[in-house]
Each structure stands twice: as structure tokens, then as C-alpha cells.
Amino acid sequence: MLRLFHWLAALLLLLSSSLAAAPKPNILLIVSDDQGYNDLGSLGNGIITPALDRLAAEGTRLTNFYVSWPACTPSRASLLTGRYPQRNGIYDMIRNEAPDYGKLYTPEEYDVTFERVGGMDLREVILPTALKPAGYKSGIYGKWDLGTLKRFLPTSRGFDDFYGFVNTGIDYFTHRRYGVPSMYRNLEPTVEDEGTYCTYLFEREALRFIDQHAGESPFFLYVPFNAPHNSSALEPEIRSTVQAPQKYKDLYPAVDPETQINKKYRYGAPATVTTRAARQRDYRAAVTCMDDAIGKMLDRLEEKQQLDNTIVIFFSDNGGGGGADNAPLRGHKGQTWEGGIRVPCIVRWPDGGVKPMQVNDAFLTSLELLPSLAAAAGIAPPKDVVLDGFDWWPTLRGEQPSPRKEMFWKRRDLIGARVGKWKWVDMAGKAGGLYDLEADPEERNNLAQSHPEVLKHVQARYANWIAEMEAAEPRGPFRDF
């Protein structure tokens, strides 16, 4: 018996040593901007996305995946913190409205606007900081959108390297937001690459980061593209579409005419704007260019023999707008209909037991990212922080159903609440109702009159959530405390 005991102890020591020596997974998190729910080539709508189709074939595509807000800034804050926008303090956009109506700020004016001085509360713990104790090197290349002052920038918040733009949208070639230079390298503004299409730049920096770190240390590479978001330019013809390189436009059928005169242009006098057909072509071209960059990242990881030990996650920051296709969902970006908050998502991690060629219908959200990636890295989530998500790996491996039963959204006076299969929508009193998402994901059949007790229950759960958010430890920049 003593000999058996020593043999078992030695075996346990060997197993624990092997587990300790197992390499920690790399993480590649790719987030597109305003991409539609149906905008994957594998879904058959005509868009060209071979890299994303590869990801879907080699991983698991999630069909019931939600983000926490139907537009950019709050959604991005939540995916990095694992917390509702109302809890982390970023529950609206950090942006200026005046340029939408043709206002060109002087540098002095811009420096004191909210878009320049607003930012995520410094007490919030984001993914790179959470992963740092496990030895991760972190880089971000693309759209930040969580503050432009030095104390708010990525390398002040846990990232080791940053190249990208700091606000919510830019011109793809000049890298200016309504005329204001917006590209940064780490803590300093830069115009070194002005004139180069920005997707190419984010691809370049991501490949450089992979070359530097793959096989040397575990890494967290965050690539938040601005594609296929409309250009943020003052010129109506540019801002009414998505900029894309000509070679990607040429992959799609020709459009004629490209432009038209809009006598009721929303931002002022009649203007020359891009036609709807051209806008859809440009949108698709921008997605295909982004997809090409994603394919090169996958190829580089494969060359480095790191692909299967890299968690690759792709999703859109919110529902599609402009030239996007959100079918079969109702609504679009900015709304609390499914089309504004349910987004395409793909996860690839064969070394972690995520099976290829799977479609997973589990109720999951971007709030799950931080606790799940911390678990994959073998570390505990941040202490003394209330998280609104959970470890999703058992669900993605098919070992257990999703623990998520509820999700809530509030964008000013727009409301969404999902409890189980039921969804209540209130579009500022102008539209909405109660919907059974299992039977009616298109939200066409309002059941509020026939199921008043269900509506009352969902509204009560939403009221409970509101009370919880109001009782949470306050965070800026919007909340009064």
C-alpha cells in the first residue's frame, strides 16, 4: 500500500507539472464596426468573406450572441470590462454632434469638447490589465473610442502597445474625424501614415505584433476595425458611404449611377450623396478588405505554429447600419430591436475543445468575454469588481447550457429586455411590444395583449435591473455623483 501511495503521489506530481508547463493560449479578439447579422459569405447573401468563412468552418458560430448597446462606445466598454454600460459608466457615446451638421472645429474649440475630454472611469479594470498577472503582452490596433486624453488611452489602461484612432469614426484615408487628425501611436498623435487606407495599417501593426510575440510569450491582440462603419468626413459624398480600395470594389457588380442629388439632405442644403446601390457595394468592399486582413493574421499564426493554441473571437460591436444586411432580424444599429443588438460571432479554439463546423444557439453576450478569457488564462477575474458575465467555455464545448437567462438594454429612452425566450421592446413609445424569440426572431408578432402576465414579468425584471444599476458603485463620465 505504501508503494502504491508513493506511485500515485508521483503520478499526481507529474500531471500537475505537465499542466503547469502547458502553454497559455494566445488571444486574438477581432471586432468589426456596424457589420450586419447576415453579412458572412457562408450565409449566402453574396458578400465575399473567405477568412470569416474559414473561421466558421474551423470553429463555432454563435447565433444568439448579443452586445450590450446598439452603438459603438458603450458596446466597446462592456466587452473590455465584462460590465453593463450602466455599471461601468459608459452608457452613451463619447462624441460631438456639431460636426454632423457641417461644423468644422478649430483645434482650440475641439480641445474643450466632450469628445476630447470624456473617457472611461480610471477605476475600471479592462482585459489587458486582468490578463497581465498571467504574463500576457497586449496590443491594440484600430478603434479605441474610450477617451483621447493621455490618462484614458490604451497604454495607460494596461495595453503594452497601441496604434489607431481614438474617437468614434474617421475618414479611412486622411485618418481625420470631420477634419481633426485622430491617429495615435501609444500616447502621441501621429500623421506618419496619412493617405494610407487604415485597414491596411491595422493589418500591418497586427502582423508586426504577432511576429514579435508569437511563441515568445502569451499575448492578447485586440484588433477593433472601423470597417465597415461609414466614413466620418464633412463632405456629403464621402460621409454617405463607406470608403474602400478600388480593387475590393471591383470584386462586386458595377453600379450606375454612383451618386445622386439629395434635395432633403439631413445635414443641410441639397447635396451630392452616394446612391443606395453604391453604398451597399462600398460597404461590402470594406468588409472584404477587412476579411483579407483577418485571413493574413490567421495565416501568420499558422506559419508560427500558434493558430490552434490561439483563441480567435470575432464579432461586430453592434448591429449593422448603412449598407448592412441584418436579415432575418428586425431593426438596425441604434435600435433595441434584435437587428441593433444581436450580432454575428465566431469562436475558434481547437486546443480548448471548441469544435469545428458547429452552430451554437445558446444565449450568450459580450459580457462573457472577460471572465471567459481570464479562465482560459488560468487566472481569477479581477477582485472587488462586479462582473455581469460568466465563463462560457462549458457552453461552447457543449458540456452544459448557457447560464444566461436575462439581458437588458437601455439607450436613452429606447429599451430592450430579454428574459428567457421573451423579449420586450419599447422604442420610445413609438413602437415595440412583447415577442417570443424562439418562434419569432424577426419580432413581427406582438404578444403583449395575449400574454399580459408575461409582459408584466419581463417589465418587472427590467425594473429590478434598473434598480441594481442605480445602486451600483457610481462611475463616470455620465453619472452624477
Automatic annotation (TrEMBL):
Residues 1-21 form the signal peptide. GO terms for molecular function: arylsulfatase activity. Residues 25-379 form the Sulfatase N-terminal domain. InterPro entries: Alkaline_phosphatase_core_sf, Sulfatase, Sulfatase_N. It holds the Pfam family Sulfatase. It is an enzyme of class 3 (hydrolase). Keywords: Hydrolase, Signal. This is Arylsulfatase. It comes from Rosistilla ulvae. The gene is atsA_30.
